[in-house]
Each structure stands twice: as C-alpha cells, then as structure tokens.
Specification:
By secondary structure, the protein is mainly α. The chain is built from 44 helices and 14 strands. A hairpin with a 2-residue loop joins β2 and β3. α8 runs antiparallel to α9 and α38 packs antiparallel against α39.
C-alpha cells in the first residue's frame, strides 16, 4: 500500500486490501502467511470489526467444498496471525474471530472516508477539494484489490471493489472536465474506454474531453464506434445522454465547450489576476485625463470593447496615469486586471504570442492547453475573457499591429494602451494625447516629493526648476528625488544647475531624447563608481540582468556590485525587477549607452565589459552543459574565458539558472557577435543548446543563431559560422523544418572542414544523418553518420562516437538489419557507461535508440524497460521534445506487444507533451500510431479521424508516410 500522509507507517498495526493483502507492525512488514491465511485476514478486515463465526469463515475461504480438517486449519491460521500481528489484534468472541483496526489503519476504510469527503465537497461546490480527495482515495490502490487471495468471498469482493474504483475514477474524471482539465483527461479516458469498452459513461466523458480539446471529429467518431459496438455486442442503442451529447457536438454548442460553472451558492475557484503595478503615492494632477479615461472604462459593460490609447513623448507620465486610472477602475472589473510591458521602445519588442501565453496562464489556462500559433492563442484568449470583466493594461506598445491580438474584443472588458506614437490605425480606440503637466500640476508634484517647507521658502526657484524640466513628470521626479536626498542643497542650487543650457537643451526638444537633460542631472550627481556602473550596465541587451551577471559586467565582487546597483535604484535610474534582478527604463538605457559612448574612453573599456558578460554566460552555461552531458568533448574546443561563471552541483539548480537567464543569455550571444566576439558567441549557443529545444525560447534561440551566423559570415570566420549554423540546424530539426535544417547542416559541414573545426565536422554530418533518416533517405543517412563517426573518433570524442553509433542503429533498423541495429545501440551505450556517464543525458539517447531496435526485434518487455529509463532522464532534464518522442516510442512498443489500450494512452500523452514543439510531422507520426491503436480497440471512427489529420499533414509536407496512411484508411473501414 502506498504510504503517504493518510496512513502513518509507524503507528501500530495497519493493513492493505486495495492490492495484495498485507500487514505492517510498527512500520515493518508482517508475514501474512499462505494464500488461505491471507484470505482469512481479508475476510475479517472486510467485516469492518464485526465477529465472523467459524462456519462463515470456512464458507468464505473454501466455499461449498471445504477440506476435511477445515476447522483445524482455520484455527492454525488464526494462531499464526496472532503471532505475526500481536495477540491484541485478533480477538476471539462467540465462537468466531474479529479484527478491529484502529482509525486510519486500513486502506479501504481510509478510501471510504476520502470518498465521503469528496462527495461532501462536491455538493458544496468545492470541486478542487473534491478532486484532491478522490485522487488520494484512488492513490491507495496498488493494483487489483485482494490480489491472489483465494475463495469465493474474495472473488465477489474483488468485483465489488473494482466496480467502486471505476465509479470513483468516473467521478474524478467528471470533476476534471468541470474544472477545465480536459486535455489532461484524454489520455486516461482513452485507456479506460479500451479496458471497459461497454461502459457508456466513460465514452461520454471521452467525447466531451475531445470536443473541448478542439478534436470534434474524434469526438463524433467515438460516438459512432460506441453505437456500433453496443449494437454488435448487446443489440441496443446508446443511452439518451450519449445521443444528446453527440447532437450538441454536431451543433458546435458553445456552452458545451466551456467547463461547467459552479452553482450560485458555491462560487467556483476562478483565477482573478491582479497584475497592475503599484500606483505611485504622490500621483498629482491630470484630473481632466483621469475623468476622461474613467468615463471610457465605465462604458465597458455596454460597449463592444472600451479601448483607450494614451500617446506622448517618453517621460510624460503615460504609465503613471494609466496605472492610476486602472487602479481606480478596479471595482468595474472584478474578474481581474492584466498588465504587460510590451517593450516597444527597445530593440526587442515583446512578441504578441509570448504575451498571450503569459496572459492565458494568468487566467488559469494550463500550459498543455495553450496553442502554438498567434491566431489560435488570440482566439483562445478572447474566448477565455468572454463573460468576464477584465481590464488589460498594455504598456509601452510599439505599434497597433503589436496591440491588436492582445485586445479582449468582448463586452465587459476594456484595454488601456500606452505608446509613444498615436495609434490612429487602431480601429475603435479612444485616442488620448498626453502632454506635459501644467505649471501648477508640475509644482504640486515637485512639492510632494521635496517637501512643502523647502518649496514654500523658495517658490520662484521651484518654478524655475519645473520650468527647466519642461514640466515633464519623469524629469521632475528625478530632479526632485535628487534634491530630497541632499538636505544640504537648496532649491536655488538645483535651479542654477538646470539653468545651464547644456543640461536642458535636449529636454526642450521632442522625440525620444526629450528627457536627456533630466537624466543628465541625475547622472551628474552620481559618485564615480556609481556613474561607471550606470554606463556599463546600459550596454547589455536583454530585458533585465541578474546580480551575478551585473557583477561580471562591472568586474566587481558580488557584494560591491549589489551596493552600487541598489544605490542606482535609490536614484530612480535603475529598477529592481525582483530580488537579485535589475532593469532599466528603456529611455534611461538609451541615455546610459550614450553616456558610455561619451564618457567610457577609450572604447576598449566598453568592449571589455561586454566581453566579461559573455565570459560569465559562457562559463556558467558550459558548466550546466557539463552537468547534463558529462564527458562531452565539445567543451574542450570552446574558446577560453577569463571570467569565471557560477558553479552548480545539482542539475535542477543548473537548469533553473539556464532557463531563467534565457532572455539575457541569448541577447548577449547576438549582441556580442555584432561586437566582434564571434567564437565565444557561437560557443555560448552550443553550451545553451537546451534552450533551442523548448517552445518558450526556440524562436529567440534561432534569432540569436542567425545573428551570430551572419556576423561570422561577414567577418569570414568559418569556425564561428559553422558552429552557429550547426545550432540553426538543430533548431530547424527540432521544429520539424527538415529542408531548412539540411541547408544549414550542409553549409555547416563545409565550413567545419574548411576551418578544421572538429566540432562542426562531427556534429554537422551527424545532424545530416538524422535529417536523412527522417526523410527516409537511408543510404544518405548511413553515409553521413559514417562520416560523423569517423570525425568523432578522430577527435577522441567518445560521447559523439556513441551518439553516431546510436543514430546508425536507427538507420540499420529502417533498412531491416535489426540484429546489427541492436548491437550498434549496445555499442553506443557501452561507450557512455565506460566513459562514466551512466546518468547522463546522452545515455538516455542511447537507451532511446536501443529501445527502438529491441521493439523491432520483437523484444517488447526489454524495449519498454530501456525506454522507461530514458523517459525518466528526459523528464528530469526538461527535454520536452525527447520526453514526448519517448512516449511515442513506448506507444509503438505497446502496439507491437499487442497492448493497444496502453499504446493509445501513451500516444495521447505524447501528443500532450509535444504540444507546441517538434513540428507537424512528428505530431502526424503520433496520430498515425494513435489511430492504429484505436482501430484495434474497435474505435474505427476515431481512428479514421486521427489518420485523416495525419494524412493532411503528410500531404502538405510531401512526406512519404502519406501512402501508408492512405492504405490504412482504405483497408480499415468505419464500421
């Protein structure tokens, strides 16, 4: 029995019936004896403390034909149980026996209590609590109840307990769908309908789950399969509930597509995001704008959508005003407020699909339910907001095209947009041009920050200050903050500084640099070390920077760097995004870079700062790579670094760092390539290759690799270009773009051979071999992989050699040389194990190849074992692509072993994991296997739906697998 927080393993005697009949005494396993002795124990426990007579026990254990000395045997079993469990456990009474377990000591009783709690919670509308209780109850099962216990009583109880288990599972799955977990439920429902084909409630739940996943054709196919099966097996039609569900699916019932809402008396658990930044406590003026915008937002309940777009120069206070108005309007939007900085003024504006992913997660959508394309995400976003009253604040937008996909588009919702340009092409938007403050408002803001007493004493000087700031709120805030922090200064001193035309000339101009004079004022008051930090940190691309990375830029110990950064935060020239992370306002960053170009002379100092940052990222990423792939020879060919990186001993912490730093790391790779640090930039991409295999970072990874490749091409650096193109090959291959991948790999190999680079000379032909294998060009694949094998061996790269052998194994497998394929995979694994990489990611790749070969060789059990080992490693290493592909291969293994139900469940899991990664071709492969599994489960309608989708993909891609799927559609009729 699984141990958890329900049953205390150290408390007295406890028992298990939901699986093998077992007992524990004081936390240690007690001997339950022979099958008949276990039957006695089970029978007494099932009596729930009531006494059982000797006759009842004999009848329950042996039935109508007990042995001649049944009573004597019964007493012997009872005596042995007393000895094993303790004399106080088994009581003798009235010519019989009884066992009265303590509360919580019998798994069946615990499961019954949890089921009762779940029913009570569901009645109260607490669906999540009900699901949790049912999951705990179902988790107590450890296989078949009363496993291997003989006797008629145990037989009948097994049937009863299995039926109860199914009822609990149906209830929990019903709750899954009610709370929107339909994508996660499909795999389990597929397996259950295969195991219990005549159970209509499971079929109904599967149809609903598939429909809510957007798989309408499969949902209708399930109904068709069910109707045929019931007619053939029982001679009856589906029950009315199932028929009504089919009709609603045919009608595309929108209400059916949404999870069931809780009754009014029991409010459901709804995610209500509250993402608005804090409103400034000294917000001043803007009364007319506040009133105008508030009136627009108040119309959200009656208009199609209330959109207000604020425009104005940088520093005019667009964000401050928008946040203030948004907070005031919160009562009108009880279902939540969303916020995002679209980084429109920077060189890397936020991508709408990335923002939509974050918004959908904030609204409670699971990662597996978020689609891949921009249009699909935008549609799901609008659907999710339908019926809700949510305010969306889109700050710092670049243009209307960036904003349009992020607009709700439904009554009850509203959007506030800030941007530097007027969005005249944003249809239906209420445009607001935000100008500078009036002199009275500007003085009021200045007074609130500096203090009434100081301003009252020098009112004219204060007016001069706000006038010199051009009445820009950001400029006023920075100037006032500096004055407030220096009690020895008078307002007149500050006014005199601003009177210098060299400090305020740019302030009075329009455009992005309109606040330069104000920044200059703050910058001019910095200590020398603070000013240097300000300049150098502004050089780094990326939305923010960690403390450790900033310390590398500044070439300072961690604590010294932190002191400087916190000092800059105090001056409002730097923001603390979160503990240990910092960011610039986009205008401040531009100004900081201008200061660096002007004041950081000679230019070598600027280049050295970026070089140290690149060294930091490369050294740390190389350490993460080494933890994931011990013994990998490619690290020996990386360019040398002079700045150490962070050191991790745990793989989990190392991967956390890599994925947290993804944006800054990849931005550094692209930026450093442009600055002439090509080889280390290319090596950084290789060290961070895991980022190219995740849907969240693959686009940015590809962009950085393209930038490095192009910069290297222009600089005629064949080695750097070859390595960058090797990474581009990898990204294209992962996304299923094999033609593009082959083009990049071919050029990478040419460059590798030209430069004598062992890395590209080995990896490029290895990748070409994999691509050729996917495209069924087996002769080419073998030639490429043989070339890669020779290159790896010449370099002494044992893990590379093993990888090439494992890939060759797959080619041999495809060309019907199964025995040789098995041996090649084993050779690769032996190299990994001999090289001391027993738990490495590479070994999992080897086991993946061996699993394929063993499946083809008809050794299903052995194949399943190695594939499960590989799956565990891929999951721990966050290798989403390989996790999904291994689930797909396990489905193939189960199918070959004659277990279509298990195969269908594995294929469904693969589809879920590969959502948004791997490309359409891999998804089509999984659908083809899922269809085969379903056809063997007499679900031919749903099988055809899977094959039709796969065929459409194959035909669009020109894949040869299309012929095989056409044959399946022809050969397997829909019955």
């Amino acid at each position: 029995m699984p141990e958890g927080d329900v049953l205390d393993p150290a408390a007295g005697v406890r028992f298990s019936l939901l699986g093998p009949v077992r007992a524990w005494r004081g936390g240690e396993s007690a001997d339950a004896g022979s099958p008949q002795q276990r039957a006695l124990l089970a029978l007494l426990l099932l009596r729930e403390g009531r006494t059982a007579t000797a006759a009842e026990l004999i009848d329950g254990i042996w039935g109508e034909e007990p042995p001649p000395r049944a009573l004597s045997a019964l007493r012997t079993y009872a005596s042995r149980l007393r000895k094993a469990l303790g004399p106080e456990v088994l009581a003798s009474a009235a010519g019989g026996y009884a066992i009265r377990p303590a509360f919580g000591a019998l798994d069946l009783a615990v499961a019954q209590e949890l089921a009762a709690q779940a029913e009570k919670a569901r009645t109260a509308g607490e669906r999540c609590a009900a699901r949790e209780a049912l999951n705990k109850a179902l988790g107590l099962w450890d296989g078949e109840a009363l496993a291997s216990v003989p006797g008629p009583h145990a037989k009948s109880q097994r049937v009863r307990l299995e039926e109860w288990r199914l009822q609990l599972t149906e209830t929990r799955l019903d709750l899954d769908l009610e709370v929107g977990c339909h994508a996660e439920a499909v795999s389990e429902l597929t397996a259950l309908t295969a195991a219990h084909p005549l159970r209509e409630r499971l079929r109904e739940l599967l149809m609903l789950a598939l429909y809510r996943c957007g798989r309408q054709a499969e949902a209708l196919a399930v109904y068709a399969d069910t109707r045929r099966l019931l007619a053939d097996e029982l001679g009856v039609d589906p029950r009315p509930e199932l028929s009504r569900l089919q009709q609603r699916i045919l009608e595309a019932d929108e209400e059916l597509a949404q999870p069931v809402e809780a009754p009014a008396s029991a409010a459901p658990t709804v995610v209500r995001p509250a993402q608005l930044p804090a409103s400034v406590p000294d917000f001043t003026g803007r009364a007319a704008f506040v009133r105008e915008l508030s009136e627009q937002l108040a119309q959200a309940e009656t208009s199609v959508m209330a959109v207000s777009a604020l425009a104005g120069i940088g520093g005019v206070g667009k964000t401050t005003l928008a946040v203030h108005v948004a907070h005031a309007a919160r009562p009108h939007f009880p279902d939540g407020q969303l916020y995002v900085d679209l980084q429109g003024a920077g060189s890397r504006p936020a991508e709408p699909e990335t923002v939509l992913g974050a918004f959908l997660r904030a609204l409670g959508t699971s990662d597996t339910a978020i689609p891949d394309s921009l249009d699909e995400r935008a549609a799901l976003y609008r659907s999710t907001l339908d019926g809700r009253r949510v305010l969306v604040l889109l700050d710092n937008a670049r243009d209307a095209s960036q904003v349009r996909p992020l607009l709700p588009g439904t009554p009850g919702c509203a959007a506030l947009v800030t941007a530097r340009t007027r969005m005249v092409d944003l249809a239906g938007a209420h445009l607001v041009d935000l100008d500078v403050m009036s002199p009275e408002e500007a003085l009021q803001l200045f007074t609130r920050i500096v203090g009434e007493e100081r301003v009252a004493a020098e009112r004219e000087a204060a007016l001069d200050v706000v006038g010199a700031c051009g009445f820009l709120p950001l400029a006023i805030r920075i100037a006032a903050a500096r004055l407030a922090a220096r009690r020895t200064w008078t307002v007149s001193v500050l006014a005199a500084k601003l009177a210098d035309s060299r400090r305020r000339l740019d302030e009075l101009q329009a455009g992005d640099l309109a606040v330069k004079a104000t920044f200059e004022l703050g910058y001019g008051q910095l200590e020398p070390a603070q000013a240097r930090a300000f300049r150098l940190l502004g050089l780094a691309d990326g939305p923010d920077i960690s403390l450790a990375a900033a310390a590398a830029v500044l070439d300072l110990p961690l604590y010294d760097a932190e002191d400087l950064l916190e000092a800059l935060v105090d001056t409002s020239l730097l923001e603390s995004a979160s503990p240990g992370r910092y960011r610039f306002h986009d205008l401040v960053r531009l100004y900081a870079r201008a200061c660096a170009e002007r004041d950081e002379q000679p230019a070598d100092g600027r280049e050295a700062a970026l070089s140290r940052l690149l060294d930091f990222y490369l050294a740390t990423a190389a350490g993460v790579y080494a933890l994931e792939r011990p013994g990998e020879r490619v690290l020996d060919h990386f360019a040398a670094t002079t700045r150490p990186g962070l050191v991790f001993t745990a793989r989990e912490a190392a991967l956390d760092w890599l994925f947290t730093e993804a944006n800054g790391l990849l931005a550094c790779a692209g930026q450093s390539a442009g600055a002439g640090m090509l080889r280390r930039s290319a090596d950084l991409l290789m060290a961070a290759v895991d980022l190219g295999e995740t849907g969240a970072n693959s686009l940015q990874f590809a962009q950085a690799a393209t930038e490095v490749s192009e910069a290297a091409r222009q600089a005629r650096d064949a080695q750097a270009e070859g390595r960058a193109r090797t990474m581009l090959t990898h990204v294209h291959s992962v996304s299923g773009q094999f033609a593009e991948a082959e083009t990049e790999a071919r050029r990478a190999l040419e460059l590798g051979l030209e430069s004598g680079d062992p890395v590209s000379s080995g990896q490029a032909p290895n990748q070409r071999g994999i691509i050729a294998l996917y495209e069924n060009r087996h002769e080419d694949a073998e030639a490429h992989l043989t070339q890669a094998l020779a290159a790896f061996r010449a370099d002494g790269n044992k893990p590379g050699e093993a990888a090439a052998l494992c890939n060759l194994s797959r080619v041999f497998l495809a060309t019907h040389r199964t025995a040789e394929a098995v041996e090649l995979a084993r050779q690769g694994i032996r190299i990994y194990e001999k090289d001391g990489t027993g738990l490495a990611l590479r070994l999992a790749n080897g086991k993946y190849a061996l699993g394929l070969a063993l499946t083809k060789a008809g050794r299903g059990a052995a194949a399943e074992g190695v594939l499960l080992e590989a799956l565990e490693t891929f999951t721990e290493s966050r290798q989403q692509l390989w996790q999904g592909m291994t689930l797909f291969r396990l489905a193939e293994t189960q199918l070959a072993a004659g277990a279509p139900a298990q195969a269908a469940a594995q294929a469904e899991q693969a589809l879920s994991v590969l959502h948004g990664i791997g490309g359409d071709w891999r998804r089509a492969n999984v659908l083809a296997v899922l269809g085969r599994s379903l056809s063997l489960l007499s679900q031919s309608g749903r099988a055809h739906a899977c094959w039709q989708e796969a065929l459409a993909t194959y035909e669009r891609l020109g894949s040869p697998e299309a012929d095989e799927v056409r044959e399946l559609l022809r050969r397997v009729p829909v019955v």
